Amino acid sequence: MTVIAVLPNSLSIAPAQRLVLGRRFLLVSWTMDGFDAGRAEPVGTITPSVDGEAMRPPFTTLSIGTGWGGRRVLAILPAPSDPRTPIHFVANNRVIAELRTESGAADLDPAGLLGSLDGAARLRVLRFLFDFACSTPALRGDGAFAALCRRLVLDRAAEPAPLAVRASAGGDLLLCAGALSPRFGAITGLVVVSPGAVVPAPFDACVGSDPAGRGRVAFDLLIDRALCAPGNLLVVMGANGLACRRFPETPAVLPTLTDRLNGRPDTSADLRHYLLSCLAKRGRTDASAASAVSELQALAPLPRRQAADAKRPIGASLDLAIPTADGGLFLAGWLHDPHNLAAGLVVRTPFGGERRVDAFADRFPREDVAKLYGATGIDRSGFVLHLPGSPGPAAALQVSAELRLASGGALRLVPPPRPRADADARAAVLGSLPPRFATPQLLETVIAPAVAPLHAAHLATRAEPELVVYGERPTRPAVSVIIPLYRALEFLRFQLASFATDPTMADAELIFVLDSPEQRDEVVHLLRGFHALYGLPMLLLVQSANFGYSAANNVGVAVARAGRLLFLNSDVVPDRAGWLPELVAAMEARPGIGAVGPKLLFDDDSLQHAGLYFDRDLQGAWYNHHYFKGLPRDFGPACRPRSVPGVTGACLLTTSTAFATAGGFCEDYIIGDFEDSDLCLRIRDQGLDIRYVPSVELYHLERRSIGRHQGYTRGVASEYNRWLHGRRWAGRMDALMARDWNAADEATVFRAGKTTQVTR
User: What would the pLDDT profile of 475-501 be if each residue is shown by its tens digit?
Assistant: First the structure.
């Protein structure tokens, strides 16, 4: 096979050589004299053609200078089905070379392919072959081509040095290590040559300094176990050369990545970042790699780092850094910078993401920082902020940061890992600042963007609740009574005793929902004893975790059989028997009533609830209030039945139809607050009325359960819920409170089974 170049008469035509690359490709080479060796392409882009038609990819060409000032042109292209078919090479719309068959032609000697080329040109040729093979599946899996590449590489390095296998990563991956000459330059490519294939390494290498101190450049490489086989070669291409390393036998026992990092205190943060980035990419399709990402972050975290030296003029700490599933990042910490030395904060995720903070807008006092630095005057060193972003390749548990200084220096900051459980991370965000500094603007721009995705992620972990049945369930109960349980169990015996001694409760279905599963055995045993004592049929639903008041009630409704639903707190105890039918009668007294609520009393007989209404505080934010709270039980206005804006969820009766139309309890609120008024507003949006029934009286030992939830009491959960409620319902509450709720209202009062018309 010969190539004849059609060029100006002043240029000689050199005989060409060819090499069969595997079964389907050819490598064609020819040399042309008389060109400026410094030019990248002597005649422009070269395209092969057959029978006047340009050849379709894949093909590629390379033009490089020879040692004597000529050009060597290499072309890789598919072999024609008929070897006698001539192939023309076209540049600038004219044929510059022709490939035709001649009998007796010899294949190209691989050594001759690189002859007369300097080191840089030889590297370009090898890179040319490897790049095309790695991008062309039909070629990289060809054994003959792999043998050629192996010969070319071993001609340069007959005895490759072995790599070291350091650790097992994610089951199907291994961590290997090697070293290079300091003159090698930056690594530009990695290729694995096996007996049957030439494939790119799955990941780039992590380059660092030689831990042995010999001045060499060390590198680590995460690679598939199948590629890390004895006899395979790793070709490392660099800016100034090419190196070859061989894979050794894999040891039978290898440490895990976590063991490796924990056992090497000198391990660089760059290697940890490299491993997490690689594993996160593989984790999208490999469950074992995804598990390794989580394990590595949890079991080998970066050590906490802060700048808290009172003798230095600037200090800072990241106390909390919580990435969320939507790509956002919540930060809380402090910055003591009286001389304005800080120029900004750069935060890096373990997978390569980077966020920049130019200003700390939301500041508040930190007594601990003021004490550390002996600050006088107003301290506003604390800060919280939220940085939006795109989701990373995996869930991040820990970030690192640099506080940039105006001089060009930096202080490295490393916060502790974020809590693993989304509920704990949510509680950490809510507890990151004192409630008095939670302004509506801060809640909207900082707290809500972090809390909402964490809350949603927590709710998404729900499993089907466990169902425990005591006795025979009523098939057609008059009312389903749903009672969430969370830690406060001391009043349950009084509540059940009142139910057992009330004959009118026989038609009720009792559904308890346990939202503190750590109490499961205690509650199962307790209810079993009460069932044996009183014979009351009951259901117990045990949640897999605490998902809040709304979720607990919604779970109870999902199994309820009655058309009427009574939501009752576990710390509510009836004053006397017969209360439930009276409450039902009040709701069914006339059409158009969507919900009713009774009079609730504190244990000192003062009023806790006589209907719910809305009002603004001095800053204009909406609050829920209870009519006549704290006044005597028999206070006149509290003894009149009437329409009210809403009633408390501590004891709220509605219909399953109205509840379903409202969409159930909204689960966006945290733990428990404002869900009941939200439901009332949804019921009112159906055109239904809500009424207060003072003839039904129950005792309510207010907020006993919620007071035992640290995620609620130690933060701004109440402020967040109030902000969320106000943002959604401000217009509706404005319209409702513009009405005169004390105006004359004709109602029907039910007492002891008698009906009396009352007009006021």
Answer: 999 999 999 999 888 889 999 999 999
| Secondary structure tally for the chain: helices H, strands E | 19, 41
Query: 58: cis peptide before it, omega within 30°?
Result: yes
Asked if residue 684 belongs to a domain, the reply is yes
- Domain around 182: 157-298
The half-sphere exposure of 190 on its side-chain side, counting CA atoms within 13 A, is 20
The C-alpha angle with vertex 48 and arms to 43 and 52, in degrees rounded to 5, equals 110
The CA distance from 542 to 493, in Å, is 19
What value does the CA radius of gyration of the chain take, rounded to a whole number of Å? 38
Asked if residue 169 and residue 69 are part of one domain, the reply reads no
pTM: 0.81
Q: Is residue 660 located within the same domain as residue 730? A: yes
CB burial string 618-631: b at 16+ within 10 A, e below: eeebbebebbbeee
- Helix axis angle for 269-283 and 287-299, nearest 10°, is 150
If one counts the domains in the chain, the total is 4
Nearest Cα neighbor of 2 from 20, 17, 24, 12 is 17
Whether residue 436 lies inside any domain: the answer is no
pLDDT in tens, 18-51: 777 777 888 887 777 654 444 444 567 888 888 8
Instruction: Convert the pLDDT of each residue in 611-651 to its tens digit.
Output: 999 999 988 899 999 999 999 999 999 999 999 999 999 99
Residue 61 has pLDDT above 50, yes or no: yes
Backbone angles phi, psi at 440, to 5 degrees: -55, -40
Report angle CA 310, 312, 316 to the nearest 5 degrees.
75
611 and 533 together in one domain:
yes
Last residue of a domain, one of 298, 326, 345: 298
Residue 410 lies in a domain: yes
Distance (Å, rounded) from C-alpha 509 to C-alpha 246? 73
pLDDT digits (tens, 9 = 90+) for 192-236: 999 889 999 999 999 987 666 567 889 999 999 999 999 899 999
Q: Which of 418, 436, 457 is where one domain is finished?
A: 418
